[in-house]
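Marked as duplicate of an earlier ticket. Keeping the data here for the record.
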Amino acid sequence: MSIELLEDIKGWSPTGWYQWFTRGGHAPEHAVGRYPSPPHPAHSGKEYVRIHMWGRAWRGGILQVVRDVEPCHYYRLTAYGFFQPKGAPEPNERIGIDLCGTLTSQFSVDVSKHPAPKYDEGVGDDPKTPAMDGLDIAENTIWSKYHDYYRWGKFEVMAEARSNTITAILYCSPKQRPSNQPIYEMNWDSVALYEMPWPAKRLVEGKSVVTPDKRVHDAIITVQPKFRTAQVTWGTKLPAGASQVLYRFLDSQAVNQEAQGKETAPTEIRIAHFPFESPVMYERSARRHRIEIENLVMPEEAVELQVVALSRVCEDGNCKTICSQLTK
């Protein structure tokens, strides 16, 4: 899924984007770059965003609140940008994803109109100001690497959403401009947000030891040897954004050893003891889950199939994987 963020520019800003800068500090000016504008034409289309400041250091950019994303899904933000003049030291260019959309309420006015209604574009606080006046960009924002691009270059960052709203942030924080240097300016274009597949093979790390969670319930396995498939169904009391099953085969000796154990239900699940897994399946806030294991080939010596079900849920602004009891 691709969400194109940068729309037609009206006035200084693209539709849906908001100017931001450090509250109490210096507010950079915004303008529209238009094609043709040698030596730096737009990266795509006919227009791009220009952010500049006359003779002062600044920290700012533009941001967009992105709604209706799915918690516990991964999203990739990309943008193209460059700083000028060429060779200016430490322009500090980067992009970021605020996983929880912390500034949503502040940046919620309808800016599709021109001129845009007034809103509070300040974030954080300048060190010169004695007291914090408002929220800053969230500390858990995931940032791209800093780049010193002096011609169009690509920025990229990927993060797991922790809310149904995230914020795409374009950021620049150059130093004070020497009086003998041309105006400092940051330029942005071609911004997009993409939903990405789960970036790892499993929802938990291979060496993890997890405790079964009572909020994962009613796990059932249905095996169909004729079709070499098994269906695993279960429920979760929390809505999940992704699910997966891990499984293993035991021979009679291993089954007998388990039967001689003191506990019928293990209190810990060692992920490394399950050599097989289904693909990670994205869901949309699901509480009932069904995964089919295909091409199921049971070894000749196997007498039992064991499964654990995993679901990725968001609780109190954090994503975590919860696990079922061992199901046989």
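See parent ticket for discussion. The longest strand covers residues 229-251.
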